[in-house]
Design a protein that fits this description.
Pfam families: E1-E2_ATPase, Hydrolase. Keywords: Membrane, Translocase, Transmembrane, Transmembrane helix. This is HAD-IC family P-type ATPase. GO terms for molecular function: ATP binding; ATP hydrolysis activity. It is a single chain. It is built from 27 helices and 21 strands. The chain starts with 10 loop residues before the first helix and ends with a helix. Strand 17, helix 17 and strand 18 (505-507) form a beta-alpha-beta unit. The protein is an alpha/beta fold.
Length: 800
C-alpha cells in the first residue's frame, strides 16, 4: 500500500465511532475526586468519637471543656490539604508524553489530540512519537523501544502487519498504522485496570498501630464512660453537668488525640520538605513505610542507568593500528542524528574534521550506515551484517563484549562507493574496531546503593534485559552480590522464594513475574519497596509495601506509586528514607509521653469505679499536665533531626517506654487518694497534689525517653519547666490549683521519692523486654534462650 492510497476514516465514520464509545480516552486509573478525599478524611472513626463527646458537652453547656475540638479540626484539614495537593501534582503529569499525533482522515493528514483518536484511525508515526493505542503497521517501517512496557531496552524493528503496543516509543523510521484497540481496551489500560483491581496496600505500621489504639480506646471508653456517669450521677449525686464533665475528664485523658495530630503534622512536614527536593508523596504515610524497608527492588533501565544509550568506549581491532576515534568522529560529523544510536555516537566522538562526499543512510534491512570519502566507504553497523563471511574470523574479538552486555557496533572500511540504490556489500571489509554502547550508570547510583548497603537494605535488581547485561550494570553500580544472577525464564512456579534467597540479579523478567518476586520476598517477612518507571512495573508496585516511580517514565506507573521522584533522580532515595526515620523515631518517642497519660487515666478510672469515688482530677488540671509535660515537648521533639535506623515494632517500643510512667502515675495518685481520705485532705488539696505528682513523673518520663540528653532536648525540658512554673504562679484559678498545706507537701515529697524508685525499676524491666522484642522481630522463632537473656540484659542496662 502506498502513501497515496491511505485515506483513513471519513468524518462520518469518526462520528459513528465516537457515538459507539470507541474513543482513545485514558481511564482514570488511580485518582480520587476531591469529594472522596474530603469524605474519607472527615468521616473517620476517630472523628466520630470526639463528635459524640462534643455533643454531650454542648448539651450540658460545658463550653470551656471543648478545647480538644481545634486539634481534631486541624488534624482533618491537614490530611485533606496534603491529599488534594498530591492530586493536583499528579493531574499535571499526562498519561502520554505526546499530546497530539498526525492522523489521516478524509485523505488529509492533520494533528489530532491522542484522546480524540478513534478505533480504526490511521496515524502517521515518526521518530520520537509515543504510540497512542494498540496498532498494526500497514505501510513503512519503524524501530520501536518497548522498555516502558516490557522492561527490555532493545530496539525492535516493526514492518508491515507488525503489532505496536500503546506506550512504546518510535526510535527511528516512519510508518502508517491503524489503531485496533483504543481507550480501555489497549494493553496499557488493561494493565492499569488490573492494578486498580488489586486495591491499595495496607497502611504503614505506625499509622496502623495508632488507628488500632484509637479504635480499641474508643470501644473501651463507651462502657467506662457509662459506668463513671452512672456512679457520679446516681450513686454520688453530684448533678448532671458535673457528672458529664467529670466523666469526660477521664475519657479525654484516655484518648491520645494529640498523638494523632502530631503524627499528621510530622508526616505533612516531611512531605513538604521532600516536595522542596522534587519528591512528591502520593500518600503521606508511605514515607514511614519506606523508612522500614529492608529489601529494595529496582529496575536496571531508568533506575540504575540513564534511560538513553551512550557510548562507553571504542576498541581497535587487533590488525588496525590507526586512530579509530578520529575515523569515527569524521563519520559522526557527516551523519544526521536521526536515531538514538547516532545521537550517542555524536555525543562521544565530537572532533570530526573531514567532510564526506556522500552518505548511506541506515536501514533495518542492511543494519548499517556509511560515509563515503573518495573511493572508500566507512561503515558502522551490526557485526553480522557488515562482516558476513568474515564473521567467524573476527567473532572472538567482540563476542566477549556482547557477553558482558554491551551493544556492539563494528566500524569498517569498504573498498568502494555505496549508494542507496547499490548498498549491498560484495567485497571483504577492513575491520577498524568496535563501538561499545550501553545505558550509562547514573552518576549518583553507586553512592546511593552504598548508603542502602550500610543501612542493611538488600537490593534486588529485576529487569527484562539479558541477565549478563543486568549483572554487569549492577556490579558497576556497586550492588552487593551482583555476580549472583539468573534468567527468570528458568524459574518455575513454587521456586520464587528459593530464587530470591539465592540470587540478587534477575534478567528476562516478565511483568507478571515481578509481582511474584515481590510476593516471595514478603512471604519471607520482608518489607519490600519497588521502584519503576514503566507500565510493566505497575503490578509489582501495587503489591509492594512501598512503591517509587520516576516521573520521566510512564505516568500510569506514576499514578500507581506512593512516592514520585519528580526529577527522576534516584539519589533522592536516602533523603526520603531519612525523612521517614525522623518521623518514626520522633513520633515513637513522643507517643510514649501521650500513652503515659492514657494508661494512667484508664487505670485511675477503673480504680475510681472500684473504690466508688469521683475522678480526683479536674479537666483543667488534665489540660495543664497534657500541655506542658506532653503536648509542648512532643511537638518540639518531633522537629529534631533523627536518622537512626528503626529497630523493632512501633507499638511494643512505645508501650515499653509508656507503661513505667503510666503505672507509676497511677500508683502514686491511688496512694494519694487513699492517704488523703485518711488524713482528711479536701478535694482541692488532693487534686493539686495529684497534678504536681503527675507533672514530676512526667518530667522523669521525658528525661528517660530523651536520653542521651543534648542541648536541644535540654532546652525543650527547660521550656516545659518554665511554662509549668509560670502557669502555677500566674494562673492557679484557670487550672483549678490551690496552695498546698504542710500535709500535702509532705505526702507529695514522700510519694515523689517512692515514684522515682518505682519508675527506675519498672523502666529497667520494660527496657529489657523491649530489646528482647526487637531481637525477636529480627530472628523470629530461631531466637535462642542465650540470645533472649543477652538481649534482656543489654536492654536493662541501656546498652544498644
Amino acid at each position: 500500500m502506498t502513501d497515496k492510497q491511505i485515506t483513513g476514516l471519513t468524518q462520518a465514520e469518526v462520528d459513528q465511532r465516537i457515538q459507539n464509545g470507541q474513543v482513545n480516552q485514558a481511564i482514570d486509573d488511580q485518582s480520587k475526586t476531591a469529594t472522596q478525599i474530603i469524605r474519607e478524611n472527615v468521616f473517620t472513626y476517630f472523628n466520630l468519637i470526639f463528635a459524640i463527646l462534643a455533643v454531650l458537652l454542648v448539651f450540658v453547656g460545658a463550653w470551656n471543656d471543648l478545647t480538644f475540638l481545634p486539634v481534631i479540626v486541624l488534624n482533618t484539614i491537614i490530611g485533606i490539604v496534603q491529599e488534594l495537593r498530591a492530586k493536583k501534582v499528579l493531574s499535571k503529569l499526562n498519561v502520554m508524553n505526546a499530546t497530539e499525533i498526525i492522523a489521516v482522515r478524509d485523505g488529509q493528514e492533520e494533528k489530532i489530540p491522542i484522546e480524540k483518536l478513534v478505533q480504526d484511525d490511521v496515524v502517521l508515526l515518526q521518530t520520537g512519537d509515543q504510540i497512542p493505542a494498540d496498532a498494526r503497521v500497514i505501510s513503512g517501517e519503524l524501530r520501536v523501544n518497548e522498555a516502558l512496557l516490557t522492561g527490555e531496552s532493545d530496539e525492535i524493528t516493526k514492518t508491515k502487519d507488525a503489532e505496536l503496543m500503546s506506550g512504546s516509543f518510535v526510535v527511528s523510521g516512519k510508518a502508517y498504522a491503524v489503531l485496533e484497540k483504543v481507550g480501555k481496551d489497549s494493553y496499557i489500560s488493561k494493565l492499569t485496570i488490573e492494578a486498580k483491581a488489586m486495591g491499595s496496600v495496607e497502611q504503614s505500621e505506625m499509622v496502623r498501630s495508632i488507628n488500632r489504639l484509637v479504635k480499641w480506646v474508643g470501644i473501651i471508653i463507651i462502657p467506662v464512660g457509662i459506668a463513671l456517669f452512672n456512679q457520679s450521677f446516681f450513686l454520688n449525686n453530684i448533678g448532671l453537668k458535673r457528672s458529664i464533665t467529670s466523666m469526660e475528664a477521664a475519657l479525654i485523658g484516655m484518648i491520645p488525640e494529640g498523638l494523632y495530630l502530631l503524627t499528621t503534622i510530622a508526616l505533612a512536614l516531611a512531605a513538604m520538605r521532600l516536595a522542596r527536593q522534587e519528591v512528591m508523596l502520593h500518600d503521606m504515610k508511605s514515607v514511614e513505610t519506606l523508612a522500614r524497608v529492608n529489601v529494595l527492588c529496582v529496575d536496571k533501565t531508568g533506575t540504575i542507568t540513564e534511560p538513553k544509550m551512550a557510548v562507553e568506549k571504542a576498541v581497535s581491532s587487533k590488525n588496525f593500528t590507526g586512530d579509530l576515534s578520529s575515523i569515527i568522529a569524521d563519520f559522526a560529523k557527516n551523519m544526521p542524528a536521526d536515531n538514538a544510536t547516532m545521537k550517542a555516537i555524536q555525543a562521544y566522538f565530537k572532533d570530526g574534521t573531514k567532510t564526506a562526499d556522500s552518505i548511506l543512510p541506515f536501514t533495518s534491512v542492511n543494519k548499517y550506515s556509511g560515509v563515503i570519502f573518495g573511493n572508500q566507504t566507512t561503515l558502522i553497523g551490526a557485526p553480522e551484517m557488515v562482516l558476513r563471511d568474515q564473521f567467524a574470523q573476527y567473532q572472538t574479538e567482540f563476542e566477549k563484549y556482547a557477553a558482558e552486555g554491551y551493544r556492539v557496533l563494528i566500524a569498517a572500511n569498504y573498498p568502494g562507493v555505496l549508494t542507496e540504490d547499490n548498498s549491498a556489500l560484495k567485497e571483504n571489509v577492513q575491520v577498524l574496531g568496535y563501538i561499545l554502547l550501553s545505558n550509562p550508570i547514573r552518576k549518583e547510583a553507586k553512592s546511593t546503593f552504598q548508603y542502602f548497603n550500610q543501612q542493611g537494605v538488600d537490593i534486588k535488581v529485576i529487569s527484562g534485559d539479558n541477565p549478563v547485561t543486568v549483572a554487569r550494570v549492577a556490579k558497576q553500580a556497586g550492588i552487593n552480590g551482583a555476580d549472583k544472577y539468573i534468567d527468570a525464564q528458568t524459574i518455575k512456579d513454587g521456586e520464587y522464594e528459593q530464587a530470591v534467597q539465592n540470587y540478587n540479579v534477575f534478567g528476562r523478567v516478565k511483568p507478571d513475574q515481578k509481582r511474584k518476586f515481590v510476593v516471595a520476598l514478603q512471604n519471607q517477612g520482608n518489607t519490600v519497596a519497588m521502584t519503576g518507571d514503566g507500565v510493566n512495573d505497575i503490578l509489582a508496585m501495587k503489591k509492594a509495601d512501598c512503591s517509587i516511580a520516576m516521573a520521566s517514565g510512564n505516568s500510569a506507573a506514576v499514578q500507581a506509586s506512593q512516592v514520585v521522584l519528580l526529577d527522576s533522580n534516584f539519589a533522592k532515595m536516602p533523603l526520603v528514607v531519612n525523612q521517614g526515620r525522623q518521623v518514626v523515631n520522633n513520633i515513637q518517642r513522643s507517643a510514649s509521653l501521650f500513652l503515659v497519660k492514657n494508661i494512667f487515666s484508664f487505670l485511675m478510672a477503673i480504680f475510681s469505679l472500684i473504690m466508688t469515688i469521683n475522678y480526683p482530677l479536674q479537666p483543667a488540671q488534665i489540660t495543664l499536665i497534657s500541655a506542658f509535660t506532653i503536648g509542648l515537648p512532643s511537638f518540639l521533639l518531633a522537629l529534631e533531626s533523627n536518622h537512626k535506623r528503626i529497630r523493632g515494632k512501633f507499638m511494643p517500643n512505645v508501650l515499653a517506654r509508656a507503661i513505667p510512667g503510666g503505672l507509676t502515675d497511677w500508683l502514686a495518685v491511688a496512694i494519694l487518694v487513699i492517704a488523703g481520705a485518711s488524713i482528711s485532705l479536701d478535694h482541692g488539696q488532693v487534686g493539686t497534689t495529684a497534678t504536681m505528682l503527675l507533672v514530676l513523673v512526667g518530667f522523669m518520663v521525658m528525661y528517660h525517653i530523651s536520653a542521651p540528653i543534648n542541648k536541644f532536648r535540654l532546652a525543650v525540658m527547660g521550656l516545659s519547666v518554665i511554662c509549668i512554673i509560670g502557669s502555677t504562679i500566674f494562673f492557679p484559678r484557670l487550672f483549678s490549683l490551690t496552695m498546698l498545706n504542710n500535709k500535702s507537701l509532705f505526702i507529695l515529697a514522700v510519694l515523689f521519692c517512692a515514684a522515682v524508685t518505682i519508675f527506675r525499676w519498672l523502666s529497667k524491666i520494660l527496657d529489657g523486654v523491649a530489646e528482647v522484642l526487637v531481637v525477636f522481630d529480627q530472628k523470629g522463632k530461631n531466637m535462642t534462650f542465650a540470645e533472649f537473656k543477652e538481649a534482656y540484659d543489654r536492654g536493662k542496662n541501656n546498652v544498644k
